[in-house]
Design brief:
The complex is a heterodimer.
Chain A: H1 3-18, H2 40-46, H3 57-69, H4 75-89, H5 99-109, H6 115-127, H7 131-142, H8 151-158, H9 167-176, H10 179-189, H11 196-204, H12 210-223, H13 225-236, H14 243-255, H15 258-261, H16 266-278, H17 282-294
Helix pairs in contact in A: 2-4, 3-4, 4-6, 5-6, 7-8, 8-10, 9-10, 10-12, 11-12, 12-13, 12-14, 13-14, 14-17, 16-17
Chain B: E1 2-6, E2 17-18, E3 23-30, E4 38-44, E5 51-54, E6 64-69, E7 76-82, E8 94-100, E9 106-114, H1 125-139, H2 146-152, H3 158-161, H4 167-185, E10 211-212, E11 218-219, E12 230-231, E13 234-235, E14 239-241, H5 255-260, H6 270-273, H7 278-286, E15 288-291, H8 303-322
Parallel strand pairs in B: 2-9
Antiparallel strand pairs in B: 1-3, 3-7, 4-6, 4-8, 5-7, 8-9, 10-11, 12-13, 14-15
The chains are: A mainly alpha, B alpha+beta.
Chain lengths: 297, 411
């Protein structure tokens, strides 16, 4: 491609874009300036984050916080405000002067009637390890009638705090739940040494859902890599097991650090070699090849 | 009689990687049959990547070049670069062929790879799978080298990387470090970028970057390298998009709008362009309703984060190219740090590669120095802010060894 011609073409593209747009403008309209506009979509669009300069950050953040707290405003507009503030949060230290007010606003949103806003606010607070938000989430897990978000989301948000003792809660959710909440509980338990037996049992259980067994493969590998290799080796060789879980296990072994640091089980290598040519599952063939490459065979 | 081609930067296996930046190479006769010089023609004849040649360092290279090689065997210098718009798709799929005149035929060949970063949406299945496998291996089920990259981008280090003029140089070094680590695992891999201002339906699939379940946990095809992805001791990746896979995220500035942030020429300045940190950068992060990626402290737990930032870096690269802002000595190519914050001034070495652990730097410096490259000496193992600016070596120095598929080298 001719570079000079490419430059001219790109300059023309920029010039065209710089021409005044016929409809949608990206001018620095503030939310307040378009408040009279009736349509929520137009107001949400008006909140779009304009290029931020230090000198207009005060006004911008103030307007956005006001939008978030305006319960008469539509969820779409308030969500747009939340997104715009989240984008400003990426300015790191430049956003520090507003962080306290932002947090207070998020705490208010945490119990808003909109589930969307509650979820987003609680996640942001949980990322900050905010005790108020953590208490709300724990209460929701212990008393489902008070839950502000789903069990799965509550567990995820609480897990942002590395020091949280979540295993007992996660075990309770695992026992009482089905679907994604059960899966989330297992993901939490992947850091709990006492759950090794549970993971081993579920991983071996062919009647268990594939998604559960796949979480258990990853969980067991993390809790006890040697036990995982032993268990995985057995059902990778088991033609009667599902190809999906066999492929998942081989891939986990291939990408796990152990694959590069320890001698692989010769039986597993034999099995993988056979699978590269004999399996009808493309995923299993691909995982076998990757496993053999990773182990240097 | 043969012709020996010597290209710089071969790796221990003799493999050569180039970008759009011309590198100086040499051709010389071996076992010449006469005492006169021999006229030869260099041609780009690869089945995949293509290269261009010149006798000077220029962006105006051509697909063929005639040289006269002395019978003494003395080398003749020429320049070779990837032909802009024609990158490789596989290892060594670019080929230089040397032909003599008339019936002399082929006197030598040299395979090489035109290795540049590409739009993730356009990757071949092979390119995609090699990238995923390398990143999955780097993660190593949570105990691999990736852990350092996750630990570099955390809240306690936020002042090193965000909210100041060094935002773009710091992330350029960060991506380069990661890419070089990936290339140690698979030399063909480059970091693809996510063009967040275009639909990218191929990315948000179970084969590539995953599809969330109802709890926002990504689901992958069986055997996918990210199935065993683990960060902060927890398996899995959480990401709930606020847009459909075939849509463009709302409110994220388009490329031409981003380029315009720096102002019109001839006054386009970095001081204004850095406003892109909030939009499109921050907005692209926040285009996901929930998940790791929408917070500085957790974003690096999601592989998409690196592709998002590769696009942010590409946008800077494109702005630099179109406005010719690659000379750090020019005022508008960079801007003063505020308020003179260490790590954001041109001459400052950047954390963590400098190993600094005393305030105001963070208390730990994960990952050691910047990974080396076989294809270039730049930027050294302790990069400065300045060293990140002229990434293609437009000013005559060595390139950083990476380029983007749509940002040419131009003098």
């Amino acid at each position: 491609m001719d570079v000079d011609r490419y430059r001219k073409r790109y300059e023309a593209e920029l010039a065209k874009a710089a021409a005044p747009p016929p409809r949608r403008s990206r001018s620095r309209r503030s939310a307040a300036a378009v408040a009279p506009v009736k349509r929520a979509a137009a107001r949400a669009e008006a909140i779009e984050a304009a290029p931020v300069e230090v000198q207009n950050l005060d006004d911008r953040v103030g307007e956005l916080l006001a939008v978030l707290l305006d319960r008469k405003e539509s969820v779409a507009v308030r969500s747009a405000g939340l997104q715009a503030l989240g984008a400003l949060d990426f300015l790191g230290p430049r956003f520090d002067p507003y962080r306290a007010a932002y947090k207070e606003t998020l705490r208010t949103l945490a119990t808003d009637r909109s589930r969307t806003l509650r979820e987003r606010a609680l996640e942001r607070l949980a990322l900050d390890k905010d005790r108020y938000a953590q208490d709300l989430l724990i209460r929701g897990l212990e008393h489902p009638e008070d839950a502000l978000v789903s069990d799965a989301r509550a567990l995820q948000f609480l897990a942002y705090d590395d020091h949280a003792e979540l295993a007992p809660l996660a075990r309770r959710v695992y026992k009482r739940s089905t679907g994604v909440a059960r899966e989330e509980a297992l993901r939490m338990l992947a850091t709990d040494p006492q759950s090794e037996r549970l993971f081993t049992r579920l991983l071996k259980d062919k009647s268990e859902k594939s998604s559960i067994r796949r979480i258990c493969a990853s969980g067991l590998q993390s809790l006890n890599p040697q036990a995982f290799e032993k268990t995985a080796g057995k059902f990778v060789a088991d033609d009667s097991d599902y190809d999906e879980i066999r492929a998942t296990s081989l891939a986990a072994l291939a990408h796990g650090r152990e694959a590069r640091e320890t001698e692989p089980d010769p039986k597993l290598v034999d099995t993988a070699e056979k699978l590269t040519t004999q399996s009808r599952s493309p995923a299993l063939r691909a995982s076998s090849k990757r496993f053999l490459r990773a182990t240097g065979v | 009689m043969t012709v020996d081609l010597v290209l710089p930067g071969a790796d221990p296996m003799g493999r050569v990687f180039v970008t759009w930046t011309p590198v100086e190479a040499q051709a010389r006769l071996v076992n010449p049959t006469g005492s006169l010089g021999v006229k030869v023609t260099l041609r780009s004849v690869g089945a995949g990547g293509q290269v261009s040649f010149a006798t000077t360092r220029t962006h105006l290279g051509t697909p063929t070049l005639s040289l006269t090689l002395p019978s003494s065997g003395a080398p003749v210098r020429f320049f070779v670069a990837g032909a802009f718009g024609r990158p490789s798709v596989g290892l060594g799929d670019a080929l230089i062929e040397v032909r003599g005149t008339g019936s002399v035929g082929v006197l030598g060949t040299k395979p090489l790879t035109v290795r540049v970063r590409k739009d993730a949406q356009t990757l071949t299945a092979g390119e995609r799978d090699r990238f995923l496998a390398a990143l999955g291996t780097l993660n190593g089920g949570g105990s691999g080298r990736f852990r350092d990259f996750r630990d570099m981008h955390v809240m306690r280090a936020v002042s090193e990387a965000h909210g100041n003029v060094g935002f773009l140089p710091w992330h350029r070094a960060y991506l380069l470090d990661l890419e070089r680590e990936l290339q140690l695992l698979d030399a063909t891999v480059t970091l693809p970028y996510w063009r967040f201002d275009r639909p990218a339906p191929k990315l948000f699939t179970r084969r590539f970057l995953g599809v969330p379940n109802s709890a926002g946990v990504l689901q992958f095809t069986a055997g996918h390298p990210f199935e065993s992805w683990r960060t902060d001791n927890k398996p899995g990746i959480e990401r709930t998009p606020g847009f459909l896979p075939n849509e463009v995220p709302a409110r994220v500035l388009r490329e031409v709008e981003t380029i315009a942030l720096g102002g019109p020429r001839p006054n386009a300045s970095y001081a204004s362009f850095i406003g892109m940190e909030s939009n499109p950068h921050g907005e692209a992060h926040m285009s996901f309703r929930l998940g790791f990626i929408n917070d500085i402290g957790t974003a690096a737990r999601d592989p998409l984060f690196f592709m998002l930032h590769a696009n942010v870096d590409r946008l800077w690269a494109k702005w630099q190219w179109i406005h010719k802002r690659t000379d750090p000595a020019r005022a508008r190519a960079f801007a003063p740090a505020f308020p003179n914050r260490i790590g954001h001034r041109l001459g400052d070495m950047m954390w963590p590669w400098n190993g600094a652990k005393t305030a105001p730097r963070p208390p730990a410096a994960p990952g050691g120095t910047l990974a080396p490259s076989t294809s270039t000496t730049a930027p050294g193992n302790k990069p400065t802010v300045r060293s990140m600016i002229d990434f293609q070596g437009v000013g005559g120095g060595p390139s950083l060894g990476f380029a983007y598929d749509d940002v040419p080298f131009e003098l």
